[in-house]
Amino acid sequence: MAPSLPKAGIFFDRDGTLIEDRGYLRSPSDVVFYRETISALQKLKDRFLLFIVTNQSGIGLGVLTPEEVEEVNRFIVNTLAQAGVAISAVYVCPHTRDQGCECAKPNSDFLLKASEAFHVDLLRSYVIGDHPHDVEFALRVGARAVYVLTGHGERHTSEMVSGSDVFVAKNMDEAVTWILGYSPWDEQKEKIEQAARVIHQGGLVAFPTETVYGLGADTFQPLAVARIFEVKRRPHFDPLIVHVARHEDVEKLVVDVPAEAWTLANRFWPGPLTLVLQKKERVPDIVTAGLPTVAVRMPNHPLALDLIRESGSPIAAPSANPFGYLSPTTAQHVREQLGNEVDLVLDGGPCQIGVESTILSFLEEKPRLLRPGGLSLEEIESVIGPVEVSASKESRPVSPGMLPKHYAPRTPIVVDQQARGDSYRNKRVGLLSFRGPQGSLSFQHVEILSEQGDLRQAAANLFAALRRLDASNLDLIVAEPMPETGLGLAIMDRLRRASHHEDFTQCEK
Ligand code: TXA
Ligand code: MG
C-alpha cells in the first residue's frame, strides 16, 4: 500500500472562536460554545486533524492558575468528544504579549510542534482565529488562515493582513464552507500547473470562479487577450476584468487605490466584487477596450487563485460564453459552448454564486455601482456608506461610454475602400492600414495593424494605433476596411461606430 499523505490540520483559537470570549474562564460553567461550533467541527473531523491553540495570558499575569485553564480545556475536549469530534492536542501559551514568548509568535512554534508530533502537512493546514495574530502565525508557516468576526474579530479588522490565503468569515459556518471548498483542489496541483503553462505560453484557459466560469489569458500578452474576443465572437470589444490573487498585484495594474476601495478589497476579496480604477500605462489597451481604467477583482475560488498565482501574471477574463449566451456556471457548459476553441478547461465544480461580480467604479468623488452582482449593495454600503447607483437601475452592465474618455480619438475617422491620402486635398490625413498601404500614397502618418494579415494581431494593436494617430494632429483618419470574419467583425464594428460618431467611446455599447 502507498504511504498515506500526511494529514492537514486545523488549529482553532479557543476564546472568541470556538467559545464565547468572556474574559478569564475559571471553570467549565463559564464555557459557552458558539451555536455553530460543534456542527462545524463535525464537518471537518474526517478530513483534518483538529487542534486547539489558546493564549491564556491570565496565567502569566497570575489571575488564572494553569489547573483552572486545564480544567476548562478538558471540559471543551470532552464535550467535543461526546459529539464525535476528536481534538488531537491542546496547546496553551501562558504568556502576556509583552513577555515576548516563542509559543505562538513569532515562530509559530505550536504549529511546528504539531507538524512534527502528528505528521501534519502545514501547507494544507488552516488556523482559525478572531485575532490578527492568529492569521500572522498561520502565514508564517505557510498555512492558510480564517479570520472570524466573532470574539475580537470586528474590533481588529483594520489591522488584518489580507491575501488569498486569508479568508474573513462571519462565523464558523462560513469558515468551514471556505475550507471545504478549498481542500479538494489541493490534489489538483498538476492540472493547475499545466493550465498555468498554457496561460504563460499565450493560450486560453477556462477556469472556475465563484460567480461564473471565466475565459482567461495573460493580461500582459495582447495577442492572447485578442483571442478571447475571437473565441467569444464578440461583435465589439468590451473591457475585461483582470483577476488577481494577491492584494499587492493591484498595484501593478492601477495608478492609485482610493482608501475606500482598499477597505472594500480587504473586506470582500477574494469575492464577487470588481473595482474599476485608473489603469497604469502598462495594462494593454485590448484589455480595457482603450479606456483609461481597468476593472480588477480577486475571485474566491481556490482553483482560480492557484491558477493566477502559478501563472505569475494577473489573468484577464470575461465570462466563458459565446456572445449573447448565458454565462456558464459549470465546466460542462463551457465545453458545450466553446468546445475545442479553449486550450484547457479547469473543472472546479459548479459555481457557488452563479451571477457575475458586482462592479463598482472609483473614478468620481463617490463610488458608483456599474453592475449589480454577487455582492449586494447593502453589504457594500454597510462598509463604506452610500454608493451612487447609476440612473438606470437595470442589471445590464453600464456602457463604458459613460466613463471619462481620455483616450477617445478626437480626430474624425472614415472607413474608405480606396484609401488614398491625396484624395483629401489640403488636409492632414493619417492611415490606419490592415496589412500595409498599397503603392505610394501620401499620408502624414501610417499605422499598420498586422503585416501578416492576422486579425488577432490587428485587434491587439487597434487601440494603441488609433491613439497614436489621434496624437498626430491630423484632420482626418482614413481606415482601410478589413475582412469581417473572426476578430475583423469586432474591428470593423468599432471603426464604423467611430466613423459615424466623432467621439469614439460614446458609441461603445
Ligand atoms: O463575475 C464576473 O465578473 C465574471 C468572472 C469571470 O470574473 N466576469 C465577467 O466578465 O462577468 P464580463 O466580461 O462578462 O463582464 C465584465 C464587464 C464588462 O461588460 C464591462 O462592462 C465591465 O465589466 N468593465 C470591465 N472593465 C471596465 C472598465 N474599465 N470600466 C467600466 N466597466 C468595465
Ligand atoms: Mg480569541
Which features does this protein show?
DHBP synthase; binds threonylcarbamoyladenylate; 20 strands; 509 residues; Rossmann fold; 10-stranded mixed sheet; single chain; 17% strand; 3 domains; 17 helices; disordered C terminus; binds magnesium ion; alpha/beta; 6-stranded parallel sheet
Q: What do the pLDDT scores average to? A: 85
Using the alpha-carbon principal axes, give the shape. elongated
Helical content (DSSP H or I, runs of 4+)? 25-40%
Beta-strand percent range: 15-25%
CATH superfamily (homologous) name of the largest domain: DHBP synthase
Determine the structural class based on helices, strands and strand pairing.
Answer: alpha/beta
Descriptive notes:
Strand 14 (358-361) and strand 15 (368-371) form a beta hairpin. It is elongated and about 95 Å long. The protein folds into three domains: 9-180, HAD superfamily/HAD-like (Rossmann fold, 3-Layer(aba) Sandwich), CATH 3.40.50.1000; 185-401, Alpha-Beta Complex (DHBP synthase); 406-500, Threonylcarbamoyl-AMP synthase, C-terminal domain (Rossmann fold, 3-Layer(aba) Sandwich), CATH 3.40.50.11030. Residues 392-408 and 501-509 have low confidence and may be disordered. The longest helix has 17 residues, at 66-82. The protein has helices spanning 37-44, 57-61, 66-82, 109-118, 132-140, 153-156, 172-182, 189-200, 222-232, 250-253, 259-268, 285-288, 302-311, 331-338, 377-384, 455-470, 487-500, and strands at residues 8-13, 48-55, 89-93, 126-129, 144-148, 166-169, 205-207, 214-218, 241-243, 273-278, 293-297, 315-317, 344-345, 358-361, 368-371, 388-389, 413-415, 429-433, 445-448, 476-479. The protein is built from 17 helices and 20 strands. The strands form three sheets. Strands 13-7-8-12-9-11-10-14-15-16 form a ten-stranded mixed beta sheet, sandwiched between helices. It has a six-stranded parallel beta sheet with strand order 3-2-1-4-5-6, sandwiched between helices. A four-stranded parallel beta sheet has the order 17-20-18-19. The protein is α/β, with parallel strands linked by helices and 509 residues long. The site of magnesium ion (MG) has 10 residues, from loops. The site of magnesium ion has 10 residues, from loops.
